[in-house]
Input
Amino acid sequence: MATVVDAASEDRRELATTVGATAAVWLLFSSAWPLLPVRWFVTLVHEAGHAVAATLLGGDVASVTVNRHGGGLTTWSYRGEVPTTTTVLVASAGYLGAAVVGGVMIELSARLRRGRAAAAVLAVLVAAIGLAWVPWRFAADGPVAQVSGSSSGDGRFSTVFWIVAALLLVGLAVQPSERLRRTTVVGLATSLCLASIDDLRQVLDISSRGGHSDAASAAAVTPLSSWLWAALWLLGGLAACGAGLWSALSRDRDREP
Output
């Protein structure tokens, strides 16, 4: 009985330590070039959130791309006038989608096989995004492309990135080290949460100065200001990530007799 209690406590400590260490690294070095691949991953999930929402709401997604600087762009269209609800949901799905994926991945890391399922899910997710929406050739034009830092080479860059990322995640899922799987998955999931929350803090600042952002797109078709939209998304992101962490810790606690 004592062994089960100790194992569950050790799992909680390991999870909390990984989340805390990732948070410290991200807060101190998020702009450093060694963390750029993590930023590309976060941006890919963010842009995929827009693409999924647009597709489910009847839109046609032309492309999803990320660029070397960590920015990204989703281009989509709608037959006829875009409903207000569609605009708001698609704009909201980027930051909130990345936070939800992060929270779910933290929770999945606590399931059977200690992160194998979560790593496999991430690999399938990245491959599905790439196959469905990432083009080899991409033409960047318009003011939104300029704001995001997009260029004509982003299609090729995004294609190479998602293929390499999917292969690395498959390798992570099949390799034998439980601890490596769980630590990597929790680190990526925590990065998704932290990046979404940190980006939303920047959107709050951009919104206060009237700059372009997803929040500005939502504000353009609703009575709410872009600052308020960013604040609501920030609260939603915090809730999603907090719920994932709480669920993961509770799952380990439930193993105790």
